[in-house]
Amino acid sequence: QVQLVESGGGLVQAGGSLRLSCAASGRTFNGHAMGWFRQAPGEEREFVATVNWSDGKTYYTSSVNMKGRFTISRDNAKNAVYLQMNSLKPEDTAVYYCAAVRRGSGFYTLPRLYDDWGRGTQVTVSA
User: Fold this and answer.
1) Are 45 and 98 in contact (CB under 8 A)?
2) Average pLDDT, whole number, for the chain?
3) Predicted confidence (pLDDT) at residue 110 exceeds the cutoff of 90
4) DSSP 3-state of 66
5) How far apart are CA 109 and CA 127, in angstroms?
6) CA quadruple 110, 34, 45, 1: dihedral sign
7) Of 49, 53, 84, 97, whose CB is crowded by the most CB atoms within 10 A?
8) Average of pLDDT values for 8-19?
9) Alpha carbons 49 and 85: distance in angstroms, whole number
10) To 10 degrees, the CA torsion angle through 23, 27, 28, 34?
11) How far apart are CA 127 and CA 125, in angstroms?
């Protein structure tokens, strides 16, 4: 089992930026992919982005609300995945979760397809 720990959340003003980090511990991650999701109060968990571990290819949500503002990246040597968030809006306020797919191919956007999850990090964007 992969243990995932997110960090980098916090309170930021609208228009600001945050960089979330997710470290995989326990053993070297050599699974298929890692991704970011978010969940606002009273809402379902929402896919943000995913990156394939082997080749670094990325896939993002088609939500116009996030398009072009978020960038996912990974560092294999550090066993880490990042989410750079720019031009943040109050509607980006949510708990952001890191998740991992151990085996597979292609891109996964459904939470139920991910095997391991972190506990989340709170992002709050003030108006």
Assistant:
1) no
2) 94
3) yes
4) coil
5) 29
6) positive
7) 97
8) 98
9) 11
10) -50
11) 7
Phi first, then psi: what are they for 51, rounded to 5°?
-135, 135
Tokens 């945050």 — which residue? Answer: 18
CA–CA distance, 124 with 11 (Å, rounded to integer): 5
Reading phi first (left if > 0) and then psi (alpha if -120 to 50, else beta), residue 49 is in beta
Closest CA to 51 of 99, 17, 116, 4: 99
The contacts of residue 96 (CB under 8 Å, 6+ apart) are 6, 9, 20, 36, 37, 38, 48, 83, 120, 121, 122, 123
How large a percentage of the chain has pLDDT more than 90? 87
Where helices occur in the chain by DSSP H, the ranges are none
Taking only the tens place, the pLDDT of each residue in 19-64 is: 999 999 877 788 899 999 999 999 999 999 999 999 999 999 988 7
What is the phi/psi pair of residue 52, to 5°? -75, 135
> For position 2, what pLDDT does the model report?
84
